Amino acid sequence: MPALAPHSNGMDMSDSRSDTATSLEATLDAWEASLARLEQQATQVLRAAKQLRKAAQDGALAGVGATQGVLREGAARLTETIARDAEMPAIDIAATFENGSFLTELSQAAAAAGVTLVQRDGRITAYPVVLRLEARNLGVRVGRKLERRLRPSVLALHLKAIQQRSGRFNARSFLDRLSRAYTVLAPDWRSGEGPLIALAALHDVLTLLPAAAADYPMEEFLVDLLHLDREPDARSGRGHRFELGGSTGTKGAKRLTVFDETGAQHDYYAVRFAADARNA
Q1: Residue 124: which of 20, 270, 4, 246 has the closest Cα?
Q2: CB-based burial of residue 235 (10 Å sphere; 0-12 exposed, 13-18 middle, 19+ buried)?
Q3: In this predicted model, what pLDDT tens digit does every residue of 123-180 receive, in sequence order?
Q4: Contacts of 270 (CB under 8 A, 6+ apart)
Q5: Which of 156-166 are b and which e, b meaning 16 or more Cβ less than 10 Å from the residue's Cβ?
Q6: Which residues, including other chains, have CB under 8 Å from residue 152's CB and lie 6 or more apart?
Q7: Long-range contacts made by residues 184-192, C-beta under 8 angstroms, separation at least 24?
Q8: Following CA atoms 145, 109, 168, 1 in sequence, which dihedral angle do they give, to the nearest 10 degrees?
Q9: Is the pTM above the cut of 0.90?
Q10: H or E element that contains 141
């Protein structure tokens, strides 16, 4: 797929290039190095303080004056370092979210970690989760959880870990849930091939209660559909077969789109179940 700019209506973002003078990653890297020096100096001051406390504890007074000098000198240097290096650099997260530079950096870091970010129709996905930038909360909503670790390389590794955990899927259990919703919308179906039913309508049935909608958002439903599509021979607990089909011409079939690990697009519209007479 062609590389596209962060705010385009396109696909794979991994080849985008940041146009910011100093990246968020570089800024945080430099600050981390400064804080490491501060930590080292603080350790030296603490070491001198511990030596003095040990001297007081034991009454070993020889060399105390020299240690006090080391403590005072170290504390003075530490105070200067704190004033110079402890201040957080000027990072405007809201601006990086708005101008697209954060997404550009994140997509590059994600690509390095083997994760593809896709932006389309105002939605950002990193299979199997949808990302939402929340400047007000200084975080990124990853699925349903707010992630406040915004360093691109760290967030990219977090997305990779989520992706590696996403393989657990029980096709039979999902088909059982889906077939129960299917029979609500196709009450006359008993055996043979049932009618095509819009998947969006089935999701509505599965999430009729407000709590159910919160527990099973559309994004998770789409990932389950992708998993199911990869197991075409799966059966429900009652032995029902399934067929994912339909198109925009199918009555009431809204297109549901999900992007997989490689950024490839998968569109789903409707499903039908089929049952032998003995399994009806």
Answers
A1: 4
A2: middle
A3: 899 999 999 999 999 999 999 999 999 999 999 999 999 998 876 789 999 999 999 9
A4: 196, 197, 198, 199, 244, 245, 246, 250, 253
A5: bbbbbebbeee
A6: 24, 25, 102, 105, 106, 108, 109, 110
A7: 189/273, 190/275, 190/280, 191/275, 191/276, 191/277, 191/279, 191/280, 192/274, 192/275, 192/277
A8: 110
A9: no
A10: strand 139-142
Token readout for 221 is: 């439903």
What span, in angstroms and rounded, lies between the C-alpha atoms of 147 and 134?
10
Domain ranges of the chain: 93-165, 171-279
Nearest alpha-carbon partner for 15 in 5, 23, 25: 5
- Omega before 128 within 30 of 0, i.e. cis: yes
- Taking the mean position of all CA atoms in its chain, how far away is CA 114? 14
Contact between residue 90 and residue 103 where contact means Cβ atoms under 8 Å apart:
no
Q: Which of 88, 105, 164 is nearest to 140 (CA)?
A: 105
**What is the average per-residue pLDDT within 103-124?**
94
Q: Which residues are within 8 A (CB) of 12 and not within 5 positions of it... i.e. 6 or more apart? A: 1, 2, 3, 4, 116, 117, 118, 263
* 8 Å CB contact between 231 and 171: yes
